[in-house]
Design goal:
The complex is a heterodimer of chains A (305) and B (307). Chain A has 305 residues and is mainly alpha-helical. Chain A contains 14 helices and no strands. The radius of gyration of chain A is 26 Å and the shape is flat. Chain B is 73% helix and 2% strand. Chain B has 307 residues and is mainly alpha-helical. In chain B, strand 1 and strand 2 form a beta hairpin. Classes of the chains: A mainly alpha (305), B mainly alpha (307). Chains A and B meet through helix 3, helix 5, helix 6, helix 7 and helix 8 of A and helix 1, helix 2, helix 3, helix 4 and helix 5 of B.
């Protein structure tokens, strides 16, 4: 005791006495198990990315441009994904053109205009629940309303409208959060000099909330880009029959990148496995780029009040 | 000096400004009310067709040996059992992984580690389910499930594992938020009494956040039940399936059954009411997930009231 304690400073001695000098093995075990859970999740992500890239390599290395610009085909040697790319871009245009203005508008109403009435509470609860409805159910909504009742048929416009509805509640929720983060003093400053409510929102609230709103909506776009199930319900599985010209696709047979992935993943030939993986690489590159943009935006403009 | 005297009318808003104000407000209100319209449209379109199906279908066809809509066999228990088997497998995978990751990020990780690992979890969350479905069929099944057991390539365990991977980041981030929201004075009180980090985390912070954690798990189940693409690709029940609860066999879920019906509906002319059966299954799915989401919401509200 005497010899050992001389090597330690008093604070270390106190710590050692308090801890009983033993290593906390159960504690380390818990910490290790928790870390392991996290590492397994990330390990799966790495395996997934590596496996997809390896599978896609034969296609991506031999004909990268040809693959992007060739139409869908039953012959693996010439098959490409051009209709999927065009379809997905057009679908995104619907989501951006419809979900963003309507979703942000609804969020502005709920956060800036609405009083705490039963009606407002109903709308809020309703939007939260809509966000939890499985995407495939929205597909049924699109099938019943756009395709059948409105008589559009299985065309891209119906798919675009359906996808816009899927994304809408997420946009409302994320935009609401961004608006709520703007402190009230900003609003009071505008109202105090005689601004109307809309003038206050436009000149004072939106500029501060914009980075948050954009981050949230960009992330929801990324989600819409990979969404498959609702599109299957409203007919985005025309395969090689889908139009190649964007204008024809709007009102005709169409497909999208994720539905191409689904269609091809059902084909057992090895060549199609490689093609599917290559299409997935294109899908993931777009989604990861979009996400990276959103996260950079968030880190850059993150503001604490 | 008589010119610069303000009257009440000078402070009044001009008619043009007032009109614009009203129009803008109306647009925002309409946008908010649209969500109610969407909900009504969902319920009406599901319920209408589901009712048509339920009234017209031969009731004995709803409780037979399997789900074969083209032959007029709509066995509900087959697709519900498949859904439950896959959701259960998914939760067995996602609960330890998601909760572990959430607890580690909230209670153990240093700020630097958090900044590094959290975006990685977000990347995992952004992988579309159709991609995980392909990965399940081409990697998880041959390399893990088939190596350990003699299961066929398409089986429910594979799909369940992949669904579990899909909902892991969801459970991780919601449970992390719940743990993070526990006020620091509880941790400090625990440390002040001489408790270790393990004791503080498991006996003080976790119980305080338990309703948020339960909400995360319920939401995970709800997401697993509604997950479509993984099951449609990897569970192997696309054309129809006999009643099956063994996870190592192919099976059919509600969502996969809907996908099969939707894709095939314009190619094959099968039995009557296959189109309406799609909505019947959809209605069942909608009611199940809505119930789970409301339950999860109730847990979150309880948690908010506590702090």
């Amino acid at each position: 005791m005497g010899i050992r304690s001389q090597a330690l400073r008093p604070s270390e001695l106190v710590e050692q006495r308090l801890r009983g000098g033993r290593t906390d093995w159960p504690g380390r075990l818990v910490a290790g198990a928790l870390l392991l859970a996290l590492l397994i999740s990330l390990g799966i992500l790495l395996v997934l990315l590596a496996d997809i890239l390896l599978r896609a390599w034969p296609v991506l290395s031999s004909r990268p441009l040809d693959f992007l610009t060739s139409p869908l085909s039953a012959r693996p040697a010439t098959a490409g994904i051009v209709q999927g790319i065009v379809g997905s871009i057009l679908l995104m245009a619907f989501v951006i053109g419809l979900s963003l203005p309507v979703g942000i508008g609804a969020a502005i109403y709920l956060e800036e205009y609405a009083h705490d009435t039963p009606m407002t509470r109903l709308i809020r609860t309703n939007i939260r629940n809509l966000a939890g409805v499985p995407a495939i159910v929205y597909g049924l909504l699109g099938l019943a309303v756009f395709v059948t009742t409105l008589g559009m048929g299985k065309i891209l416009i119906a798919g675009g409208l359906t996808l816009a509805v899927v994304v809408l509640p997420i946009v409302v929720i994320t935009a609401s959060e961004a608006l709520r983060a703007v402190p009230n003093s900003i609003r009071e400053a505008a109202l105090g000099v005689g601004a109307t409510r809309w003038e206050m929102v436009r000149s004072h609230v939106l500029p501060y909330a914009a980075p948050g709103i954009f981050t949230g909506t960009i992330l929801s776009l990324a989600r819409a880009f990979g969404e498959t199930a609702p599109l299957l319900m409203v007919g985005a599985i025309a395969g090689t029959f889908s139009a190649t010209d964007p204008a024809d696709m709007l009102t005709g047979s169409y497909t999208a990148l994720p539905t191409v992935v689904f269609d091809w993943s059902g084909k057992p030939q090895d060549e199609f496995r490689a093609l599917t993986a290559a299409a997935i690489v294109v899908l993931l590159v777009v989604i990861l780029l979009v996400n990276a943009t959103a996260i950079t935006l968030r880190n850059r403009y993150d503001r604490r009040w | 000096m008589t010119a610069a005297r303000l009257a009440a009318t000078d402070l009044q808003i001009s008619a043009g400004r007032r009109r614009r104000e009203g129009l803008v407000r109306l647009f925002f209100l309409a946008a908010a009310v649209l969500s109610i319209v969407i909900s009504l449209a969902i319920v009406l379109s599901l319920a209408g067709n589901a009712l048509t199906f339920f009234v017209n279908v031969d009731k004995s066809a709803l409780w037979t040996d399997g789900w074969f809509p083209r032959r007029g066999l709509f066995d509900i228990k087959t697709i519900v059992a498949g859904t439950l088997v896959i959701s259960l497998t998914a939760m067995l995978v996602a609960t330890p992984l998601g909760l572990g990751a959430g607890i580690f990020l909230s209670e153990y990780a240093t700020p630097r580690v958090r900044r590094l690992l959290k975006p990685a979890i977000e990347v995992l969350a952004s992988i579309p389910s159709v991609v995980l479905g392909f990965f399940a069929l081409t990697w998880i099944s041959p390399n893990i499930v088939q190596t350990l057991t003699g299961a066929p390539l398409s089986n429910m365990a594979t799909a369940g594992i992949a669904v579990g991977i899909l909902i892991t980041p969801l459970i991780a981030s919601i449970s992390e938020d719940a743990l993070h929201a526990v006020p620091n004075y509880l941790r400090e009180a625990s440390y002040g009494l001489g408790a270790r980090r393990r004791t503080t985390t498991l006996r003080v912070v976790f119980p305080a956040a338990v309703s948020g954690v339960v909400a995360a798990l319920i939401l995970g189940v709800s997401r697993a039940i509604g997950e479509t693409m993984i099951v449609a690709i990897a569970a192997g029940g696309t054309g129809g399936s006999l009643f099956e609860v063994n996870p190592l066999e192919p099976g059919q879920t509600m969502t996969a059954a809907m996908t099969a019906l939707a894709i095939g509906s314009d190619r094959v002319r099968g039995a009557e009411y296959t189109f309406e059966s799609l909505f019947f299954v959809g209605f069942l799915l909608f009611v199940m997930t809505l119930g789970l989401n409301l339950a999860s919401d109730a847990f979150v509200r309880r948690f908010r009231r506590a702090y």
